[in-house]
Structures are given as structure tokens and as C-alpha cells.
Amino acid sequence: MYKILTKRTLGPGIREYVIEAPDIARVGKAGQFIVLRLHEKGERIPLTIVNVDPETGGVTLVIQEVGKSTREMGEQFHEGDSILDFAGPLGEATEIENYGTVVCVGGGVGIAPLYPIVRALKAAGNTVIGIIGYRSRDLMFYEEEFASSCDELIIMTNDGSYGKQGFVSDPLKQILESGRKIDRVWSIGPAIMMKVCADITRPFAVPTIVSLNSVMIDGTGMCGGCRVNVGGVAKFACVDGPEFDGHQVDFDLLMLRQGYYHDEESCSMDAYMAKQAEGVEK
Questions:
Q1: What is the mean pLDDT of residues 117-137?
Q2: Axis-axis angle for helices 169-177, 191-201 (nearest 10)
Q3: Average pLDDT value over all residues in the chain
Q4: Assigned domain for 121 exists
Q5: Cα 265 to the chain's mean position, in Å?
Q6: Are strands 233-236 and 227-230 parallel, antiparallel or unpaired?
Q7: In the structure, what pLDDT confidence band is assigned to residue 224 with cuts at 50, 70 and 90?
Q8: Are residues 99 and 17 in the same domain?
Q9: CB 16, CB 8: distance < 8 Å
């Protein structure tokens, strides 16, 4: 069993947890993920590591409540409670070097897994330009964390309620078109956002790394649920990634695969909500 050390709300339906898992906290690195299971009847949920603290044994995760299991975790699991399974670290860690000047682009909850990469790149001596985007101001989180780790930080909101109005791809394009030398780009967020960013950087031949949050189940490459096409070759996001060359990823196929289990996910959520409503009525 793995104890929840802290839990805090970052925004509507977005929560940060620190889970006591000392073995993972000692060796986990930026870019890697864990797979957790809340209880015996729970599904396996892959979540990227946001931070590790070897001294406390804490592993930090940021979770957006979008499906049955994440909704259940947000509503039913609190500080002091324990979850059943917590496996990791899984996947390949981010390759961190002193590349020069890098741009790190994050959208929505993808901002959370981008943060440890930004921190590691800065520690390695890079000049880090951060671009983070939210739908609106009320969904913002980690602004101070990014500001402390970036040499330059640009904040975008879709509705213009904070920072600049627009999409994260807008300032990325402006920076590249300005002629400024950019040595590498990281882009983490919704698949369509990563696709657009990769399309923007391709003509400039700037290496672009994306993190693929496709469907994962066992986290060991056995089930094939996270299969992606990279450079015409089948890869598994859980063991070959989760980071890949964004210019080689078939995003159209990825987005199609992400919708494969929509009906099952909706059915599971409906059953959970009905059970919760039944408990309230009783």
C-alpha cells in the first residue's frame, strides 16, 4: 500500500498528489512515469512523474479528473489514505544535456510533466524559454514554478483572461521566424497541440521532442495498447518512449487510437456516477 502524503487542488478538476513510494523516489527521473491502481477492482492509470524527493520518499503527480478512475481518486482518496499499487519508474528518461537555447511548450495538464524537464534543462546550463498555455485563467497552475526555472516565460490563454490571448504555437512560431537560434524544442500537451508544434518546427529543422500520452495498460509493452507509428515503425509508448521525435510521429493515427475506448470509458463513468448517486439517495 502507498500512502497519500499530501493532496491539493490546483484548479477545477486538477489535483496534485504526493505519494509515499521511496524506492521510486530514489531513482525516478524527468520524463518517466508510474502506473497506479487504486484498489483491487481499479484500472491501471499511467501518470508522468512531476517530482521526486528521496528524503521524504515522496513522488509528485498531477491528475486531471477526466475519467472514472481519476474522478474516483479525486473524490474518494485523501491525505492519509493509501492506494493499492504504484509501479515504476517506467519508460525512458528525458535526455538532458546542455543543448544551448531550448523552448519548452506545455498545454493544459501537460504543463505538469513538462516542469521537471524544464528544471533539469536549466540545471544542465541551458537557456530555457517556457511557453505554457491554458484555456482560461481559472485553470492555471505552476506559474511560479515555471517562472523560477525559465529564463523567459510566455503565458497564453485561449480566452485572453491572463497573459496573451492565443495558442502556445503562436509564440513558438514567432520565435522561430525571428531568426533566433533555437537548439531544441519540447512539446507536451494534447496530441493536436504537439502535432501543430511539430509542424511549425519542421521547416526550421529544430529537433522537437514530444511525450505521447496514448493508452497504456500494463506499462511493459506486452499489451500493445500504446502502439504508435514513429518514422513508419511501430513503437510502444510505454517502453520505447514516452518521448519521441515529433517530426516522425504519425499524429493522425495516434489521435484515432486515442478514441478507440471512448464508449467503454463513457460506460464506466456512467456506472460510477450512478453508483455515487445511489449512495447519496440512501
A1: 97
A2: 10
A3: 91
A4: yes
A5: 20
A6: antiparallel
A7: confident
A8: no
A9: yes
Q: Which pLDDT value is given to residue 273? A: 77
Q: What is the DSSP letter of 248?
A: T
Tell me the three cell numbers of residue 45: 492509470
Instruction: Quote the pLDDT of residue 282.
Output: 39
* pLDDT tens-digit map of 64-78: 988 888 999 999 999
Same domain, 126 and 190: yes
Out of 188, 211, 234, pick the residue that ends a domain.
211
Q: Which domain holds residue 19?
A: 2-90
**79 shares its domain with 181:** no
243 class by beta-carbon count within 10 Å (0-12 exposed, 13-18 middle, 19+ buried): buried
Q: Report the number of secondary-structure helices (H) and strands (E) in the chain.
A: 9, 17
* Distance of alpha carbon 90 from alpha carbon 79, whole angstroms: 25
pLDDT tens for each residue of 9-62? 999 999 999 999 999 999 999 999 999 999 998 888 899 999 999 999 999 999
Which CATH number does the domain housing residue 120 bear?
3.40.50.80
Residue 262 clears pLDDT 70, i.e. is over it: no
Whether residue 177 lies inside any domain: the answer is yes
Q: Which of 180, 211, 242 is the last residue of a domain?
A: 211
Asked if residue 251 is part of any domain, the answer here is no
Whether residue 101 sits in one domain with residue 9: no
CA atoms of 28 and 50, how far apart (whole Å): 10
Total domain count, the chain: 2
Q: Where are the beta strands (DSSP E) in the chain?
A: 2-11, 14-20, 33-37, 45-48, 51-53, 58-64, 82-83, 85-90, 101-107, 127-134, 152-157, 164-165, 184-188, 208-211, 227-230, 233-236, 243-245
Examine residue 229 and state whether it is found in any structural domain, yes or no: no
CATH code: domain of residue 76: 2.40.30.10
Q: In this model, does residue 161 exceed pLDDT 90?
A: yes
C-alpha cell at 244: 519521441
pLDDT band at 158 (very low <50, low <70, confident <90, very high): very high
